[in-house]
Design brief:
The protein has a 4-stranded antiparallel beta sheet, with no helix packed on it. It has a two-stranded antiparallel sheet with strand order 3-4. It has one domain. β1 and β2 form a beta hairpin. It has about 60 residues and is an all-beta fold.
């Protein structure tokens, strides 16, 4: 399985869904999801996953 052309880490597969950890994105927006079956057949869901806005915040913690 790839998302936006990058490999996703498969966590669990059932007859009705695939659970995966998405690869990191460099920008927000939609990405194609491609799944390859054991037979070699592929299916692509155009813009099947959307990365949210990337934000970086400074977090300060004190005891």
């Amino acid at each position: 399985m790839t998302i936006g052309g990058q490999s996703a880490t498969i966590v669990r597969v059932t007859p009705t869904f695939i659970e995966a950890i998405t690869p990191a994105a460099t920008t927000a927006g939609a990405a194609h999801v491609m799944v390859r079956a054991g037979s070699g057949a592929t299916i692509t869901l155009a813009q099947g996953f959307v990365y949210g806005a990337i934000s970086r915040r400074r977090v300060t913690m004190s005891p």
